[in-house]
Structures are given as C-alpha cells and as structure tokens.
C-alpha cells in the first residue's frame, strides 16, 4: 500500500548535531562517491578516447570553415581566431565532463524504487546529502578523464595543440571561475534531482532540460560564434557559467577587468539554483508517496 510521507528529512534529526559533524558526514559521502568513480578506469579511458575523437572532428570542421568562409573573417570578426578556437574545443571537451547531462544513477534509483523514504530516515539534510553526491559525480570525470584529454591536447601536432593561457592573471581568474562553474553545475544537478521527486512523466523531459543547459553553455558551439543580437542574452543566462566564462578568461577574450562581474554572475546563479532547489525539494517531500508494505 502506498503511504504518504508528511515529514521532511529535518524532522528526523531529533539528536542535536553540530555543524561540524554534519558537514563531516557530507564530506564522507563525497569521498565514498569519489572513490567509486575512480574504480572504473577502463570506462574512463573509453570515454576519454571518444572525447578526443570528437575534438579532432570539431577542429577539422572549424579549420575548413575558417579557411573557406567568406573573406576568411567570419570567426575573427567574432573575436575568436582559429588557434583560440582549437584551444576552446579542447577545454570545452574537458569541462563538458563536469556538466550534468543526466541524474546521478544512485539518486535516480532511489527516487524510482521508493528508497527516498530510507534516505529521509538518515540524520542528514537530504538536499545537502544529494549535493555532496552530485559534487563527487561532477569532479571525478573532470579529474580522471579530463587529465587524459589535457595530456593528449599537449602532445598532438602544433596545428591541433592546446594554447597556453593568454595571461597569468587571466589564467588565475579562469581557475576561480572554474570553481564557480563546478558549484553551478552541482547546484543545477541537485535542482533537477529535486524536480524529479514525486513525478511520473519519465526521464525524457529531464534529459531535455539538461541538454538545453549543455547547448547554452557553449559546449557544442562557442557562444562567441552565436549571432550578435543574442550575445547579451547568452552571456547573462546561467549556463554560460558552465564553461564559456572560464574559457573566455583563459583565452583573453574576456579581460581580467571584466572578471569580477562575470564570476559574480556565476555565483549569483549558484545561489538562485540552491535556493530554488531547496524550495522545490521541501514542496516535493511534503507530497511524496512511497510504495511499500
């Protein structure tokens, strides 16, 4: 018989816990999930080889485009020369590994099977618990497969090679922006998990929502090559913070003077995604129905 859970995860926390011990538990969840991710070495090598293959295809297509486009200025007028574009492609393939393209399989299985009820019995905040899991799921592919991609991008022939950063300051700011991008990807992934709670319309719409984020991030077409009338919109929308803003700082197409507002915009969207994610999860948990006997 189905029964309705009328209490949220916070109501189960009857014993007082310090903030330190709570976040130590979330750190343990992160470490366990990360250790699981490092076990699949063959899968990581296979995934990296696919990413390398697609990078070479993209580079070849863009080289033809830049060579034969009208007046040979189509890309340069957008502020992105061929060498910068090749670097963008390599780094985009790396950062694409951090983007949420599907719901974490462990979380999804718990939602579908009704084991969310067991999750709610833990003396942990469910949102923070899932945030830690999603964080590990974002960072492990970036480290494991991304390092292989970066190594290959530095060893290929010069015409296909990754460029060094435009400036030292731009590189440091791009690292800071990359950390903000990591938080942005994780908060959005957790928001999607909260949306998926207690709904029956399947996985298709969820994947579409995540795919839209990938398209608007610049992973498939650099945002600087989009039409001029869309440039303001695509830079202000949240998914530009996935990879386009860090890569612009790395390439120097976004000056260090503009980094404050760009990184601030990323953090603003992180805050909004976390706020909305918590609200959605609270509402869903009030209405969730778990099948059981």
Summarize the structure in words.
The protein is mostly helical and 293 residues long. It has one domain. Helix 3 crosses helix 6 and helix 3 packs antiparallel against helix 10. The longest helix is centred in the middle third of the chain and has 30 residues.
Q: Helix and strand succession? A: EHHHHHHHHHHHE
Going by helix content, strand content and strand pairing, the class is: mainly alpha
Total DSSP E strands: 2
Gyration radius (Cα, Å) is 21 Å
Described by the principal axes of the CA atoms, the overall outline is globular
Ends: how far apart? 5 Å
* Uncertain residue segments: 1-14
Number of domains in the coordinates? 1
Number of helices: 11
| Share of residues in strands | under 5%
Q: Level of helix content?
A: 55-70%
Main β-sheet, spatial strand arrangement: 1-2
Biggest sheet details: 2 strands, antiparallel
Mean pLDDT: 81
């Amino acid at each position: 018989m189905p029964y309705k859970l009328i209490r949220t995860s916070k109501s189960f926390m009857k014993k007082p816990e310090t903030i330190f011990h709570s976040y130590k538990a979330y750190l343990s969840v992160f470490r366990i999930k990360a250790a699981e991710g490092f076990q699949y070495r063959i899968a990581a090598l296979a995934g990296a080889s696919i990413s390398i293959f697609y990078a070479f295809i993209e580079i070849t297509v863009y080289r033809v485009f830049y060579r034969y486009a009208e007046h040979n200025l189509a890309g340069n007028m957008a502020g992105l020369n061929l060498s910068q574009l090749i670097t963008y492609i390599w780094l985009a393939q790396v950062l694409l590994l951090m983007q949420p393209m599907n719901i974490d399989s462990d979380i999804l299985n718990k939602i579908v099977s009704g084991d969310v009820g067991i999750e709610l019995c833990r003396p942990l905040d469910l949102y923070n618990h899932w945030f830690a899991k999603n964080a590990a799921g974002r960072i492990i592919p970036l480290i494991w497969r991304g390092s292989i991609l970066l190594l290959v991008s530095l060893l290929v022939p010069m015409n296909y090679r990754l460029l060094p950063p435009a400036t030292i300051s731009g590189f440091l700011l791009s690292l800071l922006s990359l950390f903000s991008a990591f938080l942005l990807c994780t908060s959005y992934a957790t928001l999607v998990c909260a949306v998926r709670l207690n709904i029956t319309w399947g996985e298709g719409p969820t994947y579409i929502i995540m795919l839209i984020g990938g398209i608007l991030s610049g992973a498939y077409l650099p945002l600087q090559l989009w039409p001029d009338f869309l440039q303001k919109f695509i830079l202000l929308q949240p998914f530009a913070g996935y990879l386009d803003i860090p890569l612009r700082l790395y390439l120097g197409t976004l000056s260090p003077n503009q980094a404050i507002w760009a990184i601030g915009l990323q953090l603003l969207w992180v805050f909004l995604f976390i706020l909305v994610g918590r609200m959605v999860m609270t509402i869903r948990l009030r209405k969730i129905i778990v099948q059981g006997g």
